[in-house]
Input
Amino acid sequence: MGTRAIDEGLRAGRPALRLGWVGWFAAVAITGVVIASLVFVTRPSTTTTVERERVTPLYTQQEQAVMQLVAQGLIPAATLEGEPYRTKQLINQGLIPAETLLARAVQPLYCPDELATIAAVAAGELSPEVLDEEPFRTKQLITLGLIPRAAADPC
Output
């Protein structure tokens, strides 16, 4: 019966299928989805200039050495919850812009000889107990944000 109606419609010059308002609405919706998809696929990159220009690593060698000591279990993991690790973690997560670091440049907490000691512990040349003594204990408390930075002895 359905094919007979189609055949009669074709002979009479009428379209066989008639789109009602639902059909037209579906056609417009599909067209809108296709256009939106094309706009999304062909839009320009949203990478900012800062992301393109940054060639220096986010973490310093000192911070990387401290993270290695934490990974080895030689110093507490809570060390990474303080600054500058907290801010850099937020940058890595995209929660704050990288320009945040430019606004608050801070002098290094550890002196060169202390950095050499940390490197020697990381390399296994010194005992990890060395890091439980001063000035490392005070500087760990500063890193955790438990005491002010002014409590550290200047280099």
Notes: Residues 21-42 form the longest helix (22 residues).
